[in-house]
Design brief:
The protein is mainly α. The chain has 2 domains: 355 residues, no CATH class; 103 residues, no CATH class. The chain contains 23 helices and 5 strands. Strands 2-1-3-5-4 form a 5-stranded mixed beta sheet. Strand 1, helix 21 and strand 2 form a beta-alpha-beta unit. Helix 6 crosses helix 18. The N and C termini lie far apart (90 Å).
Length: 530
């Protein structure tokens, strides 16, 4: 018996469009995205990410864990480059789960889910269901977003606080003072995580001025006082603590990172800049006015360079081409006509954050917050105006284009993270097991020198940076002066201390050091300081 099938392409297209509309119109779609991402990434993270890498997670072991441990003992340590909030949260989570890396990963996983939910919610409110769906899809498929979900650090936690602040500011059609209080409070928390959270204050004033809230000038002044007042109340305990301890309410050394970007990058290594007395600046003003013309020119160069790097590293050129096209169409269509719209105000938050990042060296992890803004601009030539592709191409073709880009991004994310998720020095875990099984308790050390702090964390010792030295005798003198009990020398140490590469071979004679254990793949040696 033969059954005739006579279904037209148009009918298939219509049916697929109906299904798609049913999906994107689902009220709790952002919740579904966030929960699925949380479940899948939790499994992947805890299965493959056994130890933090030698990249961004160096800060985790070096600074955050140290501060979290101090917090649990009743002490707040002052970090020269960031506030204390993440370290406090890390300490609380570690107290519950019993291990700091697991605690950091849990914080990241929850934070990433928060980012997905609030980002999709805001985009749905301000733009459309189509925008919300594809923004969420390209966010969860983004390789950098995935990487910094399992890589322990402040990046995703900060991103979650910023996303929540943006959501609160756009929660209602009219300004509500209670929403402002909550938004300002979360802004304060973002600042206490990373000091560049102050960009949210600039953004607040931008939307207060340009959006079409139905409030008069006096009400706007009142809103500004409420927002700033709540913000300063939130950060004041930390500010007064810094004032007492360091003499400045806003104490931090981030100007040193800015100095490296503008005067040292490409000329000397990071280690030489930080550990050899090359960083002699004492304030941001000094950094700017050392060579203000060069500073300004460099800022303009960074606009171009950071944007290209965002296209290449952050979102990929498969999406970047549409971003460039979207920006061109957006400016051709006269963006000033959108000046009082909340859509424009939302995009301004991304623009302000982009400008803040021009002050520091480029890292795609700093730009995590910008991913949704680039996606929105990439969708602009597809969905947003009378000249968009959806008006010239069949609707299914437009969807096939963006779905194809999404799948390509997912494949790229898979291959990218497959190489990185287990890239941490797992040999240190083997060394940890050997050390506690073979070294008697009375011979275990208190201080170890290495290039990175992971070894100190897993051997339960304090950490010293392995000194820079021109020869072995100078190195040994510095090691003993710092009262190190052990030296760990591996590939990372050999790369950054080339004059000491001979230490990779324990058969060489090094007076004052006794090799304890050697691993050949990759080569690494644990020395006892005699």
């Amino acid at each position: 018996m033969k059954i005739k099938i006579n279904i037209s392409i148009r009918e298939i297209s219509k049916e697929l469009d109906n299904i798609f509309q049913l999906v994107i119109n689902y009220k709790y779609l952002s919740v579904v995205f966030a929960l699925i991402y949380l479940i899948i990434l939790s499994y992947v993270s805890f299965t493959y990410h056994k130890i933090g890498d030698y990249g961004v997670e160096t800060d985790f072991y070096w600074s955050y864990v140290t501060s979290a441990k101090a917090f649990l003992k009743g002490t707040i340590l002052i970090d020269s480059f960031r506030g204390p909030l993440y370290q406090i949260v890390l300490g609380i989570f570690a107290f519950v789960v019993g291990e700091y890396l697991k605690a950091g990963m849990i914080i990241n996983l929850l934070s990433a889910s928060v980012v997905i939910f609030f980002t999709m919610s805001v985009v749905r409110k301000l733009f459309s269901n189509e925008y919300s769906f594809f923004t969420g899809l390209l966010l969860v498929f983004n390789p950098i977003f995935i990487q910094y979900t399992y890589s322990a650090g402040t990046d995703m936690f900060f991103n979650a606080l910023v996303s929540l602040t943006i959501f609160l500011l756009f929660l209602k059609d009219e300004s509500k003072y209670l929403h402002l209080v909550f938004a300002a409070f979360v802004t304060g928390l973002a600042y206490l995580t990373r000091y560049n959270g102050t960009f949210l204050i600039i953004f607040f004033f931008a939307i207060l001025i340009i959006t079409n809230w139905k409030i008069d000038f006096k009400a706007k002044i009142k809103s500004a006082f409420i927002f700033l007042g709540t913000f300063f109340i939130t950060i004041s305990p930390w500010g007064f603590f810094l004032l007492i301890k360091k003499g400045s309410f806003f104490y931090n050394d981030n100007y040193r990172n800015i100095a490296y970007e503008f005067y040292a990058k490409g000329k000397i290594s990071w280690d030489s800049f930080w550990y050899s007395g090359n960083n002699q600046f004492s304030s941001l003003t000094e950094v700017i006015f050392k060579d203000p013309i060069n500073f300004g020119v460099h800022m303009l160069q960074n606009v171009y360079e950071h944007f290209l790097l965002d296209m290449e590293r952050l979102i990929g050129w498969q999406l970047g081409v549409l971003v460039v096209l979207g920006l061109v169409i957006f400016f051709i269509n006269n963006p000033l006509k959108y000046l009082k719209s909340k859509k424009f105000a939302y995009l301004i938050s991304g623009g302000v954050f982009f400008l803040i990042l021009l002050l520091v060296f480029y890292s795609e992890r700093f730009s995590l917050f910008l991913i949704p803004f680039y996606v929105i601009m990439a969708l602009y030539p597809l969905f947003s105006n009378k000249k968009s592709l959806k008006n010239f191409l069949p609707k299914p073709v437009v969807f096939i284009i963006i779905i194809g880009i999404s799948l390509f991004t997912f494949i790229k994310a898979y291959s990218y993270n497959a190489l990185r998720i287990d890239s941490g020095p797992e040999e240190i875990l083997l060394l940890r097991d050997w050390y506690f099984a073979n070294v008697p308790e009375d011979e275990r050390g208190k201080i170890i020198a290495a290039r990175k702090p992971q070894i100190a964390y897993y051997l339960n010792m304090d950490f010293n940076v392995i000194p820079i030295a021109d020869n072995y005798q100078d190195f040994l003198n510095k090691i003993k002066k710092e009262k190190n009990d052990y030296i760990y020398f591996g590939i990372m140490e050999a790369q950054t201390r080339p004059a000491l590469r001979g230490l990779l071979n324990p058969k060489n004679n090094f007076p004052g050091l006794r090799p304890i254990v050697y691993f050949s793949n990759p080569p690494s040696v644990l020395y006892k300081v005699e």
